[in-house]
Each structure stands twice: as structure tokens, then as C-alpha cells.
Amino acid sequence: MRVTKAQAEQNRAHIVATAARLFRERGYDGVGVAELMAAAGFTHGGFYKHFRSKADLMAEASASGLSQTAARTEGVDPAEFVERYVSREHRDGRGDGCTIAALSGDAARQPADIKTEFAAGIENLLTALQSQSDTPGDADQRATRTMVIDMLAHSVGAVMLSRACPDGSPLADEIIDVCRKEILASLAHYNSDQVAARSSES
């Protein structure tokens, strides 16, 4: 039976979503096309009706996953973001977690188109986080962006470092707990400095 255009689009979206989850769980090289298609409920041969290559799917799946991360961050202030992100639940939930924490190491070794998707995704996430922290004035906005970049880099690094340890090891938990506490303390310090600066100007 001939597949309608709408059904073909749904099938493609399902393949992309499946790939995004599997790539987060196992890395780009950890799952092949045949296994990926089987997980999505399709035959291996059907892959090339949707994508020219695995690299094309990798780029599209990365863009999709990065977009989801930014969307989940809309309306979330930095402290709440850290509480959710630098957590044992996020660390253990690779398949449903952040694409940046799951695949940044892999992306660094991939072609430019995948790096471009990551750069755009990171920028979108920074924008979403900064929108919850912005204060008037160019200098304040630059300071906020610096704070958000620092916070995100430390949060991603904490999750990646914890995941590099054996599952359930005391060190893996210690990294998450220590880093979350320190990042939140840094945020509180930044916020108090901003309040003090505004008070001195008024």
C-alpha cells in the first residue's frame, strides 16, 4: 500500500526521535542504521527513503534533541535549571536527557554540520536561560551571559564527569552533589552582587 506524504513525514519524525534517544544513550558510533531502524519499527532498506546517509540523520537528530532541551528550559530560572540538570536523575536518564551532556564529546569529533547544529543548540539554550536572568543595560546583559555560559559549562561538565564513573559509584554521586552545591552557591553570589550593584546606582 502506498504511503501518504503525511504518513511518510510521521515515519521520518519517528525515526529522528528514535535516533536522538539511541544516540544519547550510546553515542553516534554505538548504534548502526539497521539496529536504529529496527528500534523504530522499520526495515533497514527503508532508511534511504528518508535520509541520504547516517551522517544526515545524526545532524537532524542532534538538532531535534537540542531543540527539545532549549524548549524544556523556557521559563526556567538558572537555579531551577541547575537543580534539575545537575542531578542523579538526569545523569542516569541518558536517553531522555540533554543532548549536550550526552553527545558533546562525540560532536567534537564529527563533521562541521553536526558541530554547527551543536553551536546553534547551545546558543538557543543560553538565550533561554539568559532570558530568565536579564537585567537592563548592555553591561548587565554581558555579565549575565558570562554567568550563564559559566553555569552551563560547569553543569554539563558535572554530568559528563559523573557519567564517566561506574554506575552507582560513590564518586559519581559525589561529583553531582558537590558540583550542584557549588554552582548554586556561585549563582547566589552573582545575584547578590547584581542586587548590590543596582542599589548603589539608585
TrEMBL record:
One of its GO terms (molecular function) is DNA binding. Residues 32-51 bind DNA. The keyword Transcription applies. Keywords: DNA-binding, Transcription, Transcription regulation. InterPro entries: Homeodomain-like_sf, HTH_TetR, Tet_transcr_reg_TetR-rel_C_sf. Signal peptide: none annotated. Residues 9-69 form the HTH tetR-type domain. Pfam families: TetR_N. The keyword Transcription applies. It comes from the Bacteria. PANTHER family: TRANSCRIPTIONAL REGULATORY PROTEIN. This is TetR family transcriptional regulator. It comes from Streptomyces aurantiogriseus.
